[in-house]
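Data availability (excerpt). The following record was deposited with the supplementary files.
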Amino acid sequence: MKNKNQLTGLFIAFIAIISAVFYLWWLLLSPDDLRIWAIRIPLIIIAMAILGVITWIGYTMYNTPPQN
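Predicted structure:
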């Protein structure tokens, strides 16, 4: 019997493989009007993640008291 961490890892790997297959289908084989969204959505997510990290850094710097 595998332990809980191993089963969780197997589940995560399975979901990642299924997601990769779906994304490749979406990017390469879907109709043209859907294909552009396979590029736009990941770019939007990446941009929002980067801007979120920059916002968090700025917020943390603003709220950190100065050290003397």
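Summary of structural features: The two ends are 57 Å apart (CA to CA).
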